[in-house]
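Comment thread on ticket #2218

A.B. wrote:
> Attaching the input chain for the structure job we discussed in standup.
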Amino acid sequence: MYTTLMPKVWTDTIEAHRRAVRDATLDVAAALVAKGGLRAVTMSQIAEDTGIGRATLYKYFPDVEAILVAWHERHVSAHLERLVEIGERAGSVRERLEAVLEAYALMSGEQRHSIELAAMIHRGVHMERAHQRLRDFIRVLLTEGATAGELRGDVPPAELANFCLHALAAAGDLQSKAAVRRLVAVTLAGLQPVPR
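C.D. wrote:
> Ran it. Output below, let me know if you need it in another format.
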């Protein structure tokens, strides 16, 4: 029996390996869906394309749906991190909010999944958490903008955050960046301070 703890390097190596296997699994599953559609994806195919055994794959995920939900959660988290990064850049609050709203609208327009896949990955706790985190982030920018006099302060920021997200949901149907920018401009017009 070992009386000393495993060295940290060993633990770090195991964790790095687990992350690598998980990331490879998510990437392969997404590629298989893009190539052949949702029905063409099997645990056997994912294991084969990832280069791991099926038994190992089942240690990480119980089924294809769990893999695709985990892939989507990772994808959404990356988008949220990108939006926060954009919102924390230098500039006026209005400029930062505009950049965040435009990036969000463009990301929304890129998200075109089959109806079957969308129904699978867009439900669940991870989406509720992501939407709440995004609403909270936009609410903070709106509060900061109202305090600075750059944005309207006569409507609660939480309501305005919902307004922004619902208005920009229409970006998913737009075909060009110019159309997305027009939608963002219309949304921002609704956030202008109300003259007294």
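A.B. wrote:
> Thanks. Noting for the ticket: Residues 111 and 172 are 7 Å apart (CA to CA).
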